[in-house]
Amino acid sequence: MDNMGFHAPDPPDSSIAWCIQLYNSRPQKCLEYLRASYPDSRVVLLVDGDTTNDYANIAAQYNAELVLGEHLMKFDTCHAYVERLLLQALKGGERYFFRIDPDARIWRRFSWLPNSDCEFGTLETITAAYKDKIRHPPNIQGGCLGLTRGVIERILESNVLSHERCVEQARNGWVRNKDCEHSMAAKLMLDDFIISWAVDVAGFPITQHPEIASYWREVTENGNLQFAVTHPNKEMTNP
């Protein structure tokens, strides 16, 4: 069967939105590389309660939307943190939405993106820190994860991102390995594990994309431009 049925070749800038979540971050190099490949895509800088840095100038320089929010990246408000992220995705009309870290590098345009609703990126079945098996569903590593619009709409309609499901019943949901247990005990959260869990609850597949190489600490060489996006690239965010 022709892959054209499964792949949307080189989608236009207008069909892709990007969100970089910021807290004491240096996103300039990330934005520089992003704009070199996707000059006209919508880009959101979502600030999670950072009151010590002013991101207004850099947002203006790279034609990005600046969204200032309260600090929600913690266990007790993990559901609200992810909901806020996904609501930003629906503020435009794009089909694809990427959540990337400030040290993710966009090397080139994607040759294709999925032609059906799913979550996609670098698939994880073993955790990075404790090397623990991830109970179903598998995870997409959070340095660069992609979602289609239909998935986001279904998640938000389902009300799965509630305090009851994500906090009170966390061990029956997104907390499904030792890394998640450790974060919960420290009153922290792992938004990529919440997202992959919510995608599965909503009934959509979680898939590997061969042009994304996103890991916790493992640096990926990309001299041959095999990958459109790699993570991490710590030199991008060093002072």
Q: Mind explaining what this structure looks like?
A:
26% of the residues lie in helices and 24% in strands. It is an alpha/beta fold and 239 residues long. It has one domain: Spore Coat Polysaccharide Biosynthesis Protein SpsA, Chain A (Alpha-Beta Complex), CATH 3.90.550. The strands form three sheets. It has a seven-stranded mixed sheet with strand order 4-3-2-5-9-8-10. A three-stranded mixed sheet has the order 6-12-11. Strand 3, helix 2 and strand 4 form a beta-alpha-beta unit. The model has no long low-confidence stretch (mean pLDDT 96).
In short:
With 239 residues, the protein is of the alpha/beta class. The protein has seven helices and twelve strands.
Helices and strands, with pairings:
Elements lengths: L6 E3 L6 E7 L5 H10 L4 E7 L7 H6 L3 E5 L8 H12 L6 E5 L4 E2 L5 E3 L4 E6 L14 E10 H10 L4 H6 L9 H8 L5 H11 L4 E3 L3 E3 L14 E3 L8
Parallel strand pairs: 2-3, 2-5, 3-4, 8-10, 11-12
Antiparallel strand pairs: 1-7, 5-9, 6-12, 8-9
Essential attributes:
239 residues, alpha/beta, Spore Coat Polysaccharide Biosynthesis Protein SpsA, Chain A, 3-stranded mixed β-sheet, 7 helices, 12 strands, globular
